[in-house]
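This follows on from our talk about sequence and fold. I would like you to pick a protein and set down its sequence and fold. Go ahead and set the record down below:
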Amino acid sequence: MALELKSAQFRREREGVWRELETLVARAERHGMGSLDGDSLARLPTLYRATLSGLSVARAISLDRNLLDYLEALCARAYLCVYGVRERPSALLAAFFAWRLPAAVRGAWRAIVLAFIVILAGVLAAWFLTASDPAYYDSFIAKGVQQGRSFDASTEALRASLGGGGKDVDELGAFAAYLFSHNAQIGILSFSLGFALGVPTLALIFTNGLMLGAFLALFASRGLLVELGGWLSIHGPTEFLALILSAAAGLKIAGAVLFAGREPRLVRLARDGRDAAVIMMGAVMLFLLAGLLEGLGRQLVVGMAARYLLGWSIFAAIVAYFCMAGRERRP
């Protein structure tokens, strides 16, 4: 009986605040925050905090369950009105492409340079080793990945493997989807391994460099380097840029862990982690583009000059976008 009286008194003293808050929240949910006038917007945070305080008191004195459920639900709804995102999804998406993504990429230029150097080191190491001893080729590229492109194949067979064309569009679309999924998994793995101080990330992209270097050495030994360049140009620049960005995002997280400076490590990690996530989203979109170019463009565009022009023009446009977009905007 005493508990019922206490609950009734508690509700009677504060019910006016709850009802007022519920009215404002219901109006905002139905018609948006723009439907609230200036006085209502000013009252909303005050009413929310008062209700939140009432919920804390109700929990402390163990009032009835129905009242606690009502206050918890009301506070959750009011929280979204007070602290929720005010921008429309279309505006957030436009801001992401207009300046958030290119600004995050520019901010990670040191990690990007490091990732590029590591991949280049892998390419050169495998190229020179394979050129000096073809037996290294199978060490760098697994049999299942070679698809007949090995030192045992004839020059004509290697040249024919670079032709493309003649495939059904549905088959090419499925091939593009597979390539996007496979390459995106590699990129996401490079990004996620950044938490292990970046060492596995560097090892993974170095391994990708070794595969490319051995591949280049094979075709260079048969005088097919120019043809291979055209074959790779369709998707290669975009795909390797995506790999580099994925690794750079992982290295940025590793840098926040290793080199926090005077900041608390969690604060630095939270800030750099947001930028790394933005970079990774951009890398996934590049993987999608590279998969489309490889699965469709490389088979449909068979002219050597056209392949070079298409692939490197797209790459130049992407690099220009990252370098120039959103420079006038300050986050």
About this structure: The radius of gyration is 29 Å. Confidence is low (pLDDT under 50) at residues 165-169. The chain has 14 helices and no strands. Residues 2-86 form one domain.
